Structure prediction request, 426 residues.
Amino acid sequence: MRLSAMNTAELQKMQAELTKEYEDYKKLGLSLNMSRGKPSKAQLDLSLPMLDIKQTTAADGTDARNYGVLDGLPEAKRFMAEFMSVPEDSVIVFGNSSLNIMYDTVMRAYVFGVLPGEKPWKDQGKIKFLCPVPGYDRHFGVTEAFGFELINVPMTPQGPDMDAVEKLVKDDPQVKGIWCVPKYSNPEGCVYSAATVRRMAAMPTAAADFRVFWDNAYCVHHLDMDDQAEIPDFLAECAAAGHPERPYIFGSTSKITFPGAGLAAFAAGPETIKYVKKLMSVQTIGHDKLNQLRHVAFFGDRAGLLRHMAKHADILRPKFQMVAETLQRELGDLGCADWTTPKGGYFMSFNTMPGLAKRVVAMCKEAGVELTGAGATYPYGKDPEDKNIRLAPSMPPVEDLKVAAELFCLCVKLASVEKLLAEKQA
Ligand SMILES: Cc1ncc(COP(=O)(O)O)c(C=O)c1O
Prediction:
């Protein structure tokens, strides 16, 4: 029965029952965590044999122990290009993580401009940046750190609301960029539709130096290898639409091998790649080539990578299923929440009734279950409706997840009943 159809007496009865259940949970002294989008130990163990690889010489004879090779060993470029589904000559292999490439990319545009001869963003007054919401807090944090004005754009099941995006970029030259996670987005697990990808590539922008920050962090992170989402090739779409330098594409093996010790890469149009290499040449002599060789030797090629991802999927799928089944069983008929059931990535996105996300997160915490802070999925940590909560099922063992998800549902129910009662009494 939908909570909104219940009368006061029914709601009060439910409140009493739920409160007792909640107090019983508190006595258990739980300490569970559903906040961290990290691989579990079992997933990390999958890549452990990689550390036994002692290869030091690249296919072309380069001694990987020594200085040099600014943009990555040829085999590492080939591997990362296959992984990110882009041509080899559009790729620069970087270091251990993609977030710092994103930061450097913003910094480069800010200090030097996006291409030779383009005015640096720092000299163009106020800079505005589009943030599809809910989204990834660290993306928003990067552009917030530069003092940009962050503009919320609602997500739809097909990706960012493209009518809103097109309108915002069309006449305002201060809008310089947008954050995108095109496949299995953080936190909704949304896969951009082909139409969204094409509109993003083709839309006219008032700023000639507008860039799309295309963070394809979860491009091979399927939960079921027989049901893999695909999206159009953004680099090719941008080139075909006459905007070859629009995309900044990022990827990493953080959640494939080891977070913080993976391999990250950047892909972009031909002028951008030339320009970035030139600027990089004063920043580094080259990244960790031994790690590049380890990754290439461990996976071989894209097929090897996908075989490895199938093992990740086997570990992650039961966890996502557990959470999805619990939410459906406990909340499915009540009409007090909605949530996503992604086919890949690391997160699920959950919406309470407006005004309850902070309360639910606090109630869970009090009973021993840590969730991502409410508001974290919005720029400046401010969810205007206080309703979105990011669920991260990857880390805890499935039996802990069961308890955490049940307690979470209990808190959602109790907070919703309290709200409806307060509204009836107002
Ligand atoms: C969308 C997205 N991009 C990037 C990252 C971090 O990537 P890296 O470890 O390569 O810096 C994360 C981590 O959660 C993420 O969710």
Q: What stands out?
A: The domain at 3-43+306-425 is CATH 3.90.1150.10 (Aspartate Aminotransferase, domain 1).
